[in-house]
Amino acid sequence: MSPYSNPEGRIIDIRQDKSDTSIATSIRDDLISSLGKGGKGEKYMPEMLLWDENGHKLFEKVNARLEYYVHHDELTLLEKHKEAVVQQLEPGAMIIELGSGDLTKVGILLSAFESACQPLHYYALDLGLPNLRRTLSLLPKYNHVTLHGLYGTFDDGLRWISTLGSTELKNTDVLSPAPQKLLLSLGATLGNIPRDRCAEFLSRFASTLDKRDLMLVSLDGTQDPALISNAYNDSEGINRAFNANALDHANVILGEELFKDGEWDTVGMWNKEQGRHEWGYRFRGGDTQDDWEWEGVKVMKGETILGILSWNYDVREYIYMLGGLGEQIH
Question: Which long-range contacts (CB under 8 A, 24 or more apart) does 14-21 make?
Answer without folding.
Answer: 14/150, 14/151, 14/152, 14/156, 14/157, 14/159, 14/160, 14/172, 15/151, 15/152, 15/153, 15/156, 16/152, 16/155, 16/156, 16/159
